[in-house]
Write a structure and sequence with these properties.
0% strand; disordered C terminus; 82% helix; 9 helices; mainly alpha
Amino acid sequence: MTAFLIIATIISLSILYKYLPNRKIFIYFCISLVIVFAIAGLIARSQQPQQTMNEAERYALQQQQKIFTGWYTNYQKDIDQLDRNWQLYHNIIENFNAENMDAYDLFERLSNLESEARIEQVHIYTIKPPPGIGEECNLHIEEMLRKTQRYSDAQTQTISLTRAAVEDEKFLTLEHSVQCHILQDIIIRESPTGLFTSNELSEILNYFKLPEDFVNSESGIRNSE
């Protein structure tokens, strides 16, 4: 196929050279053609060769995927607990703002929640990447865990600072609107922005893709286009 294209190109150039009245146009055309072929060659070189995988490598990757799936199921339970604590925190504040509880009840509930949050915070720091996972995948899991730790730290600190503010004797003497403003100010200043691990999860999913998965994915993109 390549030889045919080369021969066709040479013939076409010969015809153009013979019949074009202006040789400068022919030269510019040749230069443009060389540039186009050069760019096409660079693109072809930059493309990764099709991945291949023998049965042993395929089996090893599938086993790693099973290990990660089990690990991630347990990890997700901790994320659910963090979400529960955070939702409970906001429910407590909203109930106080709506005057469904007084400052004493607010302090008691925040104290209990802080204890639960600290227990979960300590547990988060004990989570490690599962053994038997490839180094590339392991790096993404470690980054996920670092983000989770920072999120848990910020969450616990927000709850703790809120409890400390309510515990202050001056807090009890303030008007309810002022108390609400103090609590809202802590939420704005201290709340975690969120736990964003989608990039790491995407990289991990790509790590576990088999060669045919990449082919099917690329085929699907071409078909959609």
